[in-house]
Amino acid sequence: MVVLAKGELEQIALPSVQRGVAPPPPLAAVPEINLAAATAGDAEARSAAARAVARACEEHGFFKVTGHGVPAPLLARVEAAAAAFFALPQRDKERAAATVAPPAAAGSSFGYASKRIGAHGDLGWVEYLLLGVTAGAGAATAPVALAGAPMSASADAPPCCFREVLSEYIGAVRGLTCRVLELMAEGLGLGATPDVFTRLVLDGESDSMLRVNHYPPAPRPGLTGFGAHTDPQIVSVLRSNAAAGLEISLPDGTWAAVPSDRDSFFVNVGDAMQVLTNGRFRSVRHRVTVSSARPRVSLIFFGGPPPRERLAPLPGLVDREGGRRRYREFTWKEYKTSVYRTKLADNRLCYFETATATS
Ligand SMILES: O=C(O)CCC(=O)C(=O)O
Ligand SMILES: [Fe+2]
Fold first, then answer.
1. Is ipTM beyond 0.95?
2. Could you tell me which residue ranges the Fe2OG dioxygenase domain spans (predicted)?
3. Ligand 1 atom having least distance to the Cα of 213
């Protein structure tokens, strides 16, 4: 974790996104899944939703979730608590970060950081909190142990502190993540093992995380908030305030802006899911560009497997491709170690591809 002194913050030169004259166009048709309709009990609606989820994961690696059931007042409270935390004086934010538990693995960056993303020189117009979160024994709604979230967003905050609001939010978003993962399994034709993905996120040692990002108003348009990257985990579930900025890379390599929607969640397929599905689901490249005069606040839950978990393409999916296995087996710990050695924009999966994947 790197925390900069106030003077240093202003001195860092920040990259602008390379673009032509025009910003990327909005994503024409954002794939959308209404979870309430999908899980209301009608088997036909459910299997149609599962197929739509699989299609979105294959084509974009990305979709929007409506009808998610996470209460609007909870979303408003967590957004307000995050904004209050980032409005604290720099010194208080740094002090709060010192309460965060020691890094779980060498090179990891739990805690608070400003403008520096990772340890290899990536910069962005962003400050963030990165927290390790663990699941209680098996239940999606079990109380959440946060690896050291700051106790309070402000000195005058009521006893219901930032940590508790985040805890409640994580419980809700983990439940949502599991419902989405079950639909992914069903959409892949793995309905016989509906917990094939959820068991990884619900494991007591699951390496899941929450990142709370704050992008202050941009001093000039087109500033890189968070550079292009894929998320390493199985799946990421994102929610932001109404400030735009998220962009995804389309299969043809062009970029598209995702219209913000504070009432919905957005799901990214991560690298680990691309491996488990033998490349059928696409780990989506995405970035955040800051142009807006209003600050953007986003929260991303990253569903990760336990460090010891051996990841490899699921046998049922390999069989369907005539036994062609695109990735070799590796542990999540091994993958994370590799991620920490690389820059944000690097393709990390290429080190784990088999010879048949590239032939
Ligand atoms: O802040 C956002 O909207 C996305 C950030 C992101 O991609 C990440 O934290 O991995
Ligand atoms: Fe990301």
1. yes
2. 205-305
3. 1
